[in-house]
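Regression check, 2-phosphoglycolic acid case 256:
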Amino acid sequence: MRIPLVAGNWKMYKTAAEAGEFVQQLKTLLKDVQGVEVAVCPPFTALYAVARELAGGKVALGAQNMHWEEEGAYTGEVSPKMLKEAGCRYVILGHSERRQYFQETDQMVNKKLKAALKWGFVPIVCVGEQLAEREAGKTAAVVAGQMEKSLDGLNSEELAGVVIAYEPVWAIGTGRTAQPEDAQQVNSFIRELLAARAGRPAADKVRILYGGSVKPENIASLMAQPDIDGALVGGASLQADSFAAIVEGSRLRGRA
Ligand code: PGA
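Current build output:
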């Protein structure tokens, strides 16, 4: 059974003070929520403030990125050891904005993923095609390539503990959500890739999220799809009421 996961990716929004206030509201809204795992992924500077507010509650903490080394001369980077101490359970890896603006490659995502597993994080690995690639009919090839290289060298047990987020780049921050059936098609393709690599039992355990303009209005139709196991939410995770509504809408059922 796959428990749905809803993760809020705050990107470069909210100071530590703003984040602390936000989480207080969110905790109240989500205090009785069940049947779904919830995480917020603030900027690094807000991790401690958010961890303090979340302590002992149901909402987990995640980071938006991570370096693969434990420490070293890597100006501007943050290590797994630091994120562990800050209280993170999840870490987003290979988000399309990191790939697009910071030249992150599948090989880097692969190193980060191995480090994340070694340090006991639940990694959320993002894959997804650009608009031109979709229009050229290359979605499957692009996603298969990203999966192949990002997940290289992981055994079945490790793969079973990874979360994949399918985020078509053209749907991120654009208000243009993929049709639930189109998202389902790619998510089910991702599960088949996982099954070919790690076997059916492992593939059936993996939570495959959808991300890209998820809102309270479209979460139910996305979650009605058999291979959409939750959401990675950007813009709509920045307001406590809309994020809570998405969490509520994704809680409908566990996955067989
Ligand atoms: P969005 O972002 O919900 O604002 O489209 C999703 C993401 O980037 O993870």
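Comparison notes: The radius of gyration is 17 Å. The beta strands are 5-9, 37-41, 59-63, 90-93, 122-127, 163-166, 207-211, 230-233. No diff flagged against the previous build.
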